[in-house]
Amino acid sequence: MKIHSAAALVAALALAGVCPPSAAGQPAGTGREYQPPAGPAPRTASGKIDFSGVWQKPYTPDMTKDGKDQKGYAQLPFTAWGEAEWKSYDAAEGDYTGACLPFGMTRSVNTPEPMQIMQSDKYFAFLFEQNSWFSVIPIDGRPHGHGIPTWFGDSVGHWEGDTLVIDTVNFNDKTRLDTIGHPHSDQLHLIQRFTRPDLGHISYEMIVDDPKTFTKQWNNTRTFTLRPDWEIMEYSCEENNKSLWEGRIKVPKYKRQ
Fold it and tell me: Which architecture does CATH list for 3-21+50-233?
């Protein structure tokens, strides 16, 4: 790992106010590993797989690394532009999460805090405990819209058998893919694939397609665990963000669009 990357990770964790997983889940020292409920995957009244629930997702600060319940992509296929963006990144010079700006879709899914999914036949909603953000996605087969670029992008969903595919485009270029700072451009096309093999788990795949930053698509796979014993809580990044108020965190500077 590059020295600047290790420093960026430590700095970004501090800036983002990330809590350890034990703070939101299994109490430390119990000696028992959580066992999710068993049974078949539930279905909606219309017969579709139902992904609703509060989910424990693996903390993924670096999408190139393997970890518990997740498989990274070790060598990212950077373009010359992408590699330059990666090598020049320094979280201490204004990582946007320290200023409580939106994490974006990938970095929100990467956080250790719980995530709730709410689903109907028409919509699929991510409710992220991290900063109390949400994203509501139509899954009725409609095409992408033509709005302005946004932090979380323009998402639509469709079914491939029992797999729900969420396709997102029209991102701004103000976010990073993960805590360590891997870059993306406004050409990012993100594909998320959800399957539910049983009641207690979601098999998840994130596919990154960004021709400005990478020479080919790459992916990261994970397992989410159902936590019916959890409820998501309010999370305010702005509250008590003394490092920003007192000037130890630099406000990020962005190029004019």
Answer: Beta Barrel (2.40)
pTM: 0.85
- Report angle CA 254, 12, 59 to the nearest 5 degrees: 120
Owner of token pair 């790459």: 218
Tell whether the torsion through CA atoms of 176, 178, 182 and 185 is positive or negative: negative
pLDDT digits 0-9 by tens, 163-188? 999 999 999 999 999 999 999 999 99
pLDDT in tens, 19-71: 444 344 444 445 688 999 999 999 999 999 999 999 999 999 999 999 999 99
